[in-house]
UniProtKB/TrEMBL annotation:
Top-level taxonomic group: Bacteria
Residues spanning the membrane: 12-31, 175-194, 201-224, 230-251, 279-298, 304-327, 361-384, 517-537, 544-562, 582-603, 630-650, 656-675
Chain positions covered by the region annotation Disordered: 705-726
Species this chain originates from: Microbispora oryzae
SSD domain segment(s): 198-329
Chief place where the protein resides: membrane
Alphabetically ordered keywords of this record: Cell membrane, Membrane, Transmembrane, Transmembrane helix
Organism placement in taxonomy: Bacteria, Bacillati, Actinomycetota, Actinomycetes, Streptosporangiales
One Pfam match: MMPL
UniProt name for this protein: MMPL family transporter
Protein family per UniProt: Belongs to the resistance-nodulation-cell division (RND) (TC 2.A.6) family. MmpL subfamily.
Amino acid sequence: MFRTLGDLAIRGGRWILLGTALFAVAAALWGTGVFGRLGGGAGFDDPGSTSAHADRVLAGPLGRYANDVVVLYESDRLTVDDPAFAGPVRRTLEAVPRANVTRLESYWSTGSAAFVSRDRHATYVAIQLASSDDQERVRQLREIQDAFPVQGLTLRFGGTTAMTDQVNRLTVRDLAVAEAVSIPVLLVLLVVVFRSVLAATLPLIVGFTAALGSLALLRLVTLFADVSTFAIQVITILGLGLAIDYALLALTRFREELASGAGVDDAVRRTTATAGRTILFSGVVVALSFAGLTLFPSRFLLSMGYAGAGTVVVAVAASLTVLPALLKVMGTRLAPARVKTADPTTGWWYRVAHAVMRRPLASTAGIVVVLVALGLPFLGVNWARPGDWVLPADADARVVTQETGRRFAADPGKLLTAVVEPSRPPGGGPLGTGALNAYAARLGAVPGVNGARVTGVDGDRARVTLAYAMDPMSRDARRMVEELRAVPPPAGTTSALTGMPASRVDIVDMVTSRLPWMALFVAVVSFAVLFVAFGSVVLPLKSVLLNLLSLSASFGAIKLIFQDGHLDGLLGFVPVGAVDVNFPVLIVAIAFGLAMDYEVFLLSRVREEYARTGDVAESVAVGLQRTARVITSAALLVAVVVGGFILSGITFMKMAGVGLVIAVAVDATVVRGLLVPATMRLLGRWAWWAPPPLARWWRRRDQGVDTCQPRSRRPSVSAADASGLT
């Protein structure tokens, strides 16, 4: 198959490039339409949770009772009692369009002192919008937002809908900033790493093709499922990141073949047969890692799975077709100006490998202890879901939350809703006012609740609204939710609780309960793919364990930085004592996939050398020396791609950027450069072992590459007679 692809690139390289150009145009014309079809927002909630069920009930005739928008007016000089403050605000509120406003309450419409700050220099307006959809409410807010400014007063918009709007706007801006900063740096580094301007275009062409193709696939997905707006970020990161990895791998092998005296055609054939095979196995592992995200029902994680798997498929397809065609067309122009055939036994990484292999047990134990120690802080993590805490400290929604909590008797945005409905089968008949009020009183007695009252009844369903004051992401808020759900509803009914603290508990429980299953899925498919690639059952186990160690270091660092607040000044965020629960899932998918990329790159060359020489230590050292530049360069370029997100004002984007940079850096240096050689030396020939039935099956699968025939055999190891990969 791989040699066929090479021959196809040799005979029809220009036609492949022409077809790719036509595909890119078609994908751009159709695929960019996905931006108008994205479901909007992030979709962080668990659709199967009790809070989501309550939201669906409230979207019906019973209706919601929520302060979607909190408009804060304040003045340093005037108080709400001054006509110069009160008059303009009242006239402004009377003129606000009411077509999509269900409820608008203020100090002047209610007479309640709760709407006025203790110093009387500020007041808020509570607004409930008509739609039950979060992104439709954002559009409704934008339609009326310009009606609220009052000259001489400071105006801020808070509440869940305003927070969602501000996150959406800031995300778009931050993506542009991240690209403006990282792309120029990336272009310079591409030229440095690839050692020519022409060669540096290879990953850009493949990445551009992968991105456009991924957009087309994602638009196809939107015909059948809702997709989060954040899926575009995965396409940006992964498309370019994989293009860099695969282009660098293929170009390095192509240059080696040219330097050894092969002609362009032979170099293309051998590169496609060896590096192409590595790219395929690597891509399968990465794609299946993202497929594991479909185990989570939230729209955010499902969207990441769709976008990630689709991007990998297109990137691999482009790397197996477009990349060989580019190698053929560009030919010897891709060779560096000064061709230097280096002896792999004299390189720095070769010496490092032998150094750690001289004391493999001590090296392994020392590195493992360090990585485990770095991961231990993660055991004390406090999980959160995105809220206004992800915004910068000076963002309106975050300032409004802080101001209403500090200066007012109660924060109008902190509401919970209990939906009471008949049990199935129906229980005690129509809902009685006395039973509902008694239930509300029991809810109001739960520690942390500042009051509860029945705010709506529709037939056999009722709505109870509760106020609370604590941070919805705190451990105390979780205990409050658990105690509220433990309060028995009226006889013959059930109760479902919703609101930010409740949805946070539900999404955290969903993610933490399914994350082990995702990890198991990724581990099993990685094991299967690596066995098919190398014919060993030991190497896949080792690879999974080492990748988990590199991830643990990243997780521990994220807890110390974002939950505990270390480096908050340097990174520019305000810690809230919690970590976004979506973070480990994304890191497992992206970082684990990239780590497997690097693992396949390294072990392929080690396997080739071992099949050729039969020398365990030498094959590891030479394999590391030949791939170290590819792996570290690819890791550096990927870190630049994702590093732009560290500049984001959105905390969970910053969190993902920091986490990925740490994970990639640790994996490409400490794990691949030190831990892999040490563990391979400890395992020796048993690294390539498989049970005889599996070994025989593997040999029958014609896994060999005829350009890499072994010179020596190790018959005591079942898979040792298999030929190698690159």
